[in-house]
Design a protein that fits this description.
Blueprint lengths: L1 H4 L1 H31 L10 H4 L9 H4 L4 H12 L9 H26 L3 H47 L4 H11 L4 H14 L4 H12 L2 H16 L3 H60 L1
Helix pairs in contact: 5-6, 6-7, 7-8, 7-12, 8-9, 9-10, 10-11, 11-12
């Protein structure tokens, strides 16, 4: 009788747990879809991943300065290449991450209390998962930015080469291309270089400084080549043409590498998903025929 009285409660908890699992699965699928379609956003304003923890993070911001200098420096380096780096410093980013973790922990505690789970387990797990998810988001943005730079840099170098060989200066060519190019990481790179040049910095130093902020090997190579060319008096058109040819060759090599890796990556889905289904479809008629033959 006691077990029968508790059956409705168990059923409700089971239904609530199923709804929670379904909601989490749908949320993960939605986030994966957004990540697959996401590019480096260059529109106005901050992304929603930062906005939902922006205002509450003001309370924790004064405490961030007491963290070790290594953590603050790494956080600042992670923010350096973002277009909103002037608005979100390394300390502010750490405060936002901590605030988001606390908010997620509170939400998980309330949900665990309603569903009857352990609050002491749900809250720290949610806080740690949210803190690590924000780091993974920044890491993925950096990966997408590096891929976009490697894909678009040859075209930008070709445009710069044509402009310089037509008689334009490098600064004027950069200004023309940055004004006509669509929003992208390379456009942001050129605009930052132009801002530093207008502020009175040497052009070679501006290229190197912004390349270090982006932490991109192709941009550092380009900055080094331009610095050597200007120091030795070489033609910038020839340097840019050689850089464009080299970047194009690297892009084709990267595409060939990915094409050769595709068959290896397909082995997992084939072994785990397609082969078992094929064996089941082939085995069921054979088993049925064998049972019919043996029954006779």
């Amino acid at each position: 009788m006691f077990e029968l009285l508790h059956m409705p409660t168990i059923a409700l908890q089971g239904a609530a747990l199923g709804m929670l699992i379904s909601a989490v699965a749908l949320t993960l699928l939605l986030l994966r879809w957004l990540r697959s379609r996401s590019v480096i956003d260059t529109g106005p304003g901050l992304p929603w991943q930062i906005r939902w923890g922006w205002k509450p993070s003001r309370a924790l911001l004064p405490l961030m300065r007491y963290l070790p200098a290594l953590i603050l420096r790494r956080s600042a380096q992670a923010m350096a290449a973002e277009r909103w780096a002037a608005s979100v410093s390394g300390e502010r980013w750490l405060a936002i991450r901590c605030t988001q973790s606390l908010m997620a922990s509170c939400i998980a505690g309330v949900a665990a209390g309603i569903l009857g789970f352990s609050i002491t387990t749900a809250m720290p797990v949610a806080a740690i998962a949210t803190f690590l998810a924000s780091a993974d988001w920044i890491r993925r943005r950096r990966m997408l930015r590096d891929q976009a730079i490697a894909r678009e840099l040859p075209a930008y170098l070709d445009l710069l080469t044509v402009s310089i060989e037509a008689g334009s200066s490098l600064t004027a060519a950069m200004r023309l291309i940055a004004g006509a190019a669509p929003p992208s990481a390379l456009r942001d790179y050129l605009e930052r270089v132009l801002r530093q040049v207008r502020a009175g910095r040497m052009r070679a130093d501006a290229f190197s400084s912004v390349a270090e902020q982006f932490d991109s090997a192709p941009l550092r190579t380009l900055a080094t080549a331009l610095a050597h060319g200007e120091a030795s008096g070489m033609s910038l058109g020839a340097i840019l043409r050689a850089q464009a040819a080299q970047r194009t060759a690297e892009r084709f090599a990267r595409a060939e590498k990915l094409a050769m890796e595709a068959p290896v990556k397909l082995l997992g889905p084939l072994i785990l998903c397609i082969f078992p289904c094929t064996f089941i479809v082939l085995a069921i008629p054979i088993i049925v025929k064998m049972k019919e033959a043996l029954s006779l």
